[in-house]
Every structure is written in C-alpha cells, then in structure tokens.
Write a structure and sequence with these properties.
There is one protein chain. It is globular, with a radius of gyration of 13 Å. The protein starts with a strand and ends with a strand. The chain has no helices and eleven strands. The chain has strands spanning 3-7, 10-13, 18-25, 34-39, 46-51, 58-60, 68-73, 78-83, 92-100, 103-106, 110-115.
Amino acid sequence: QVQLVESGGGLVQFGGSLRLSCAASGFTFSRNAMRWYRQTPGKERELVATISSTGGNTNYADSVKGRFTISRDNAKNTVSLQMNSLKPEDTAVYYCNVFTAWRDYWGKGTLVTVSS
C-alpha cells in the first residue's frame, strides 16, 4: 500500500532553515508528481510546492517563492523541501502528498514551528 513518511520538522528561529523529507513507497514513485502541503489549526490545507515526476518542473505558493525549494530523488523514492528564511507564519504541520490510483494519499505530517 501507499505510504508517505515525513521527517525533518522541528523548532527553528525566525530566519532559520529546515529541510523536510518524505520517504515514499507502495507506488511507482518516478511516474508521479509529488506535493507538499501545510496546515495550521482552523485553516484549510494549503498547497506549498509541487514537483513533476522527473523533477523538471516545480511550482510554489506565492508565500514561499524564493525561500523554499522542492526536490526529489527518484532513485531513493524521496521528495524534500528545503525551507530557508523561515518566518513565524510558516509554522504549520507539513504534509507530503501524492495523487495516484485515482485518489490522494497523505503522510501523517511533520510539525514546523518558527519562533519570532
């Protein structure tokens, strides 16, 4: 079955950096676009970044453009999110996502907290 396991979250100061990783299994990773979302209490889940199956195309939310970088390693079935210049408003639970076999799959999320 499809499994997505996020890691790398934690507490960081304003302006700091974190790198999130997502280990994927149970599907043909190299044939699927991957996404990172984030969610704070009381708000809808927000799409942060998308990377195409080959890694050749990426897209970002305006709020993170220029600060976050999504990447993938198809040999290791992993997708990463490098987050720089972090702000308190980046505080959220970050989720890895794939749409495959006609449905969305989600990891359990990893918490990122940015202190001011």
